[in-house]
Amino acid sequence: MLFATQHPATEAQASKPQPGFTGILMILVRVVEQKTDIIITVNVPHVPGEYRKEGIDLPAQKVGPLLDTATAIRQRILETFDVKDWSLFVNDE
Predict the structure, then answer these.
(1) CA pair distance 20, 6, nearest whole angstrom
(2) Cβ neighbours of 18 (radius 10 Å)
(3) Beta bridge partner(s), residue 21
């Protein structure tokens, strides 16, 4: 799993609430038999006023309740992920 943050590039849409940052949990699932990978992302926008900034210190690995919830969602995805239709994968050898 990879954790990253993305900050908005511009303030062009000032009338809409803009995230202070978006936390991104990225999961790479390697499907060896099909010679492919599946990438799953959980995006967590942090809009100013909707979270407590003092509850987050990313360098100290204090991610706050929104990302704690996202981590639980990520874990649930990993526990329940199941390929229902293997024909979606084309494996030309």
Answers:
(1) 9
(2) 15
(3) 46
